[in-house]
Fold each of these.
Amino acid sequence: MPEGRGSRLHPDRLRAAADLLDQAAAAGDKAAGRFAEARVDSTPFGISAQARELAARWAAALAAREADACVLGDATSGLAGRLRMAAESTRSTGFRGRIAVAP
């Protein structure tokens, strides 16, 4: 396999990568919370129809970003779990092969 096209499987590296993905998932969850807070904080009262329309659009955009952050956080957390499972399986089998990675 050409150099740079594969990576040695090391359980410690897989676990370290999983830890970093967990941190990224936590950041996604935090971002989702901030989008939710911003939606609540930007609720208009007693303003013009145009301003209410703009606020409604803003709230919809924030809700969409909140949903995106939740999905991304869940997917990232799932990937971290799969890496941990791979780390355990390579340790238990003693596999020291190569895995292909995208260029």
Amino acid sequence: MEKVSADAFEHLYLEYSDKIFSYIYLLVNDNEVAEDLTQDTFIKAYRSLDQFNGESHLFTWLFRISRNVTIDYLRKKRLFTFFSIDKFQFESNQQTPLEIVMKGERVTILYEAIRDLKLSYQEVLILRKIKEFSIKETAEILNWNENRVKITTSRAVAALKKELMKRRENSEEVI
């Protein structure tokens, strides 16, 4: 692949940086760290653009780089956190304040439960269920085969359901 011009790479950055940032943020739960890791992702991508062979989509290739950059960061920091609900905006399409609060509480419980799952389950749930990547795209990003994505997604959903049931039982005991 021939060297990409600065203008072409800037276009690539403008097109994908927000999506890469939001993915990284979901894993690190820190705005500044997510910005730094997004920057690192694009630096690595620029330096290794000649290695991109076109077998996958450029977007999934970038996500794979961002995943590797983020996992390296998490390993160094030994932080295996998920993300906070604070940054999520809820549409208020004529919902009452009580409905908005109740929805926010349910979503908070869901994300806290996801945070308690092992990292591979968190990743596959983020990519498949939150970011809505296809099985093929998820496999490319995680460097897994498609069957592993299907199995891990199924196991992650089952583990999430189990975790939510456990939380529900624990909250009923408190009442």
Amino acid sequence: MTSNPPAAQPTGIDPRSPRFGATITAALLLVAVFLALTAPFADTLAVRAGQPAFVLLSVIAALFAWGAFAGIRRHPYGVVFRRLIRPRLGPPVGLEAPEPPTFAQGVGLVVVAIGLVLHLIGVPGSLVVSAGAAFVAAFLNAALGFCLGCRLYVLLLRARVVGRQA
């Protein structure tokens, strides 16, 4: 009698998970934009680093870094989705590769980090611009399922800038 090997687990992630995370991120970024718009310009580095918009964007940057370096599967929003949301939903229509959303997390990190650094060196409006740009990208993903970072990943993959080089 022969036994069949166990069925391989499907690879990929539920595409609803990144959209769930993008929804939370978009909401946090909208708050950051509001905080940045309402904060007066600060003359000293210490005051700029303690402003609520800077602190919130720093937390968002840390979350982007988590997703970019630990991988989208280990991101806190993904864990919440898998444990609390996913069991209440039907199966996904299909799975998607984790690399594009992981790359998108890195793009978000770069955009927000640039704004944080520019703010620290005293460039007025840098938090508003970087948080606003990141908000647009997160909102497009959350509302329409259009991931700008994922599209950028695919373009760079086709140009052989990222991904496996054969």
Amino acid sequence: MSGARPSQRIEWIALDRITVVNPRSRNKKTFKEITENIAQIGLKRPITVTRRIEAEGPFYDLVCGQGRLEAYEALGQVKVPALVVSADAEDCLIASLVENCARRQHNAFDLLQDIGGMRERGHSVAEIARKTGLSAEYVNGVARLIEKGEQRLLRSVESRTIPISVAVEIAEADDHDVQRALQGAYERGLLRGRKLLAAKRLVEERRRRGKSLASREARPSEKLSATALMRAYQEDAERKRDMIRRANMAKDRLMLITEALRRLSKDSYLMEIIKAEKLDTMPEKIAARLGSRASA
């Protein structure tokens, strides 16, 4: 934080004089652990605040340490140890943002929204990237997704289901070009296996329910038509048929492999070579399956 200058000592400050200017929602389990830890061994690291000189002051704005501050409040404490720094409002927001980047258990969706807020206040992509340690590509991509209201895509980026570059491609593609964007990501090696399947489900959810996570709640009176119900049934049936086809293919391959191993095991010359090379062990379940085949 370039504009902040730490004070020389820790001050005990009344909780009711501290304002959380950039509040975060907290994971209840994590908050409980923080509170219990402070209750048992005390506060290992003081919170950081900046002083506001006002009438009947001083008052303070929280720079970082919301979880610790709220834990002290939950424990019935009146004051909390704090490091007081000199910083303007923008520096405080940057410090809060950087802390969220560094924290493993944070609400990353809030972090993405903060990037959008900084962009709206006139910060360039390069400035945000430099101050937060994020890449310029990531910052620019997040800003584009927020501008387009792509909450579903933002959540997928936050959970690392899809890369930011692929999310931006999907957001900027027409409906009929979305599958082409997925295909391109597959060919470039950006989406493979489970991530590709997850991306396809995301695209389908986005098509059905919209870009916003709250789109379904925003239309509580919407009724499911017979046509939509039939389409959903047909799609679900097709997915199940596809699962059955894949299961049958896997079963056929396993039977082929088992039969090949069984025949190879009858070749005494080959088995002697395998034993000499100490390659005669195999997984217990495969050995049991070969044994049951032989007895049959």
